[in-house]
Amino acid sequence: MIFLGLDIGGTKVELSLLTLEQGSSKNSFSYQDQSFHWEIINRQRISTNRLDSYSHFIERLEFFCQSVCKDSSVSFDDITGCGLALPGTVCNFTKKMLNGNSRFLVGKNLQKDLNDTLMLRCPVVSMNDANCFTLAESLLGAGKNLHQKEKERYKNFSCFGLILGTGVGGGFYYQNKIFQGRRGSACEVGHIELVTNGLPCYCGRSGCSEQYLSGPGFEASFRTRMYGQILSAPSAKEIFDLHEKGEPMATATIIQYKKYLGKFLGNLIQSFDPSCFVFGGGMSKEKLLYEDLLSFIKPHTYVKENIPSITAAKLGDSAGSLGACLLPFIENHEL
Ligand SMILES: [Zn+2]
After folding, report:
1. 70: number of CA atoms within 13 Å, CB side?
2. What is the distance in A from the centroid of ligand 1 to the CA of 206?
3. Which is deepest, 3, 156, 196, 288, by most CB within 10 Å?
4. Torsion angle defined by CA atoms of residues 186, 170, 154 and 309, in that order, rounded to the nearest 10 degrees
């Protein structure tokens, strides 16, 4: 089986071609008690160009898909399924993207329009990119080795994927699929209120978790603490470096961030009780984030025993396109 996955982000589009065959190997994963060997045949990127018109963007995607498939000697007829990871909520009924910063995609049914152009003879499926990240990390990445252990002990495996990057997003893998909710908007956790009467958010509300837990939110918190005493605007990574050098305001910013993260995770644990959390996005790369995180979470949980494990993503920037490849795979298994 060959799957084509497209991760459509605000700045780049990544395409992965993935083969999946039944059988176990060093590179295999378990799904519904069957073992599958996976391998990436090809992976390439182009820029998104936000100023493009929608029709020109589809033309570029068509050319991109054709050229990568040609490169790998794969014809469209060989493809078992195609998945799209989109930078916004995808409506469960209309398949239109409901929101997001990539305005040219909002209100559009990309899975239909792309299929009309490519004329694939296989299912085309689309979902929010945080859901695709969660799916890939649950099956192929950080959650991969937990399945068996969790099933033996708790009869189930679930994984909550949390993106702490330019924005904050989430996805919940449960009972062998992504939990989407009624409209497809489940786990849009970046807009859960974390602070009462807090910072204003672009969604029109205030105190949203994204304002505190995103990379830009963390950076803004440091700049506020410095009371305008700095001319530059240090990146999140530079703030962690400043902490290493003993800058007390950097340390205070990190501690405050972990307090917010602990409260947020405590609330998610009470709602979802997952087997594990997998963190993605720029902030997830900072090792200091994971140190002693439990002590920040426990005050915010009711059940304090066996708190879910928390790890960083393992698939790097490719989790989105790999998760997109897996969308038609799991959909096919539901039939
Ligand atoms: Zn918001």
Report:
1. 6
2. 6
3. 3
4. -160
For residues 191 and 93, membership in a common domain is answered with no
Please spell the DSSP secondary structure of 239-290, one letter per residue: HHHHHHTT-HHHHHHHHHHHHHHHHHHHHHHHHH--SEEEEESGGGG-GGGT
Q: How many domains does the chain have?
A: 2
**Cα–chain-centroid distance for residue 41?**
22
Distance of CA 204 from the midpoint of ligand 1 (Å): 6
Instruction: Give the pLDDT means over successive 10-residue stretches in the chain (335 positions).
Output: 94 95 89 92 92 91 96 95 95 92 91 94 94 97 87 88 95 95 92 96 94 96 83 90 96 98 97 96 96 96 92 95 97 72
| 201, part of any domain | yes
Tokens 């963007």, residue located? 57
Q: Calculate how far, in angstroms, residue 192's C-alpha sits from the geometric centre of ligand 1.
A: 7
Containing structural domain, residue 42: 2-135+317-334
CA of 100 to the centre of ligand 1 (A): 12
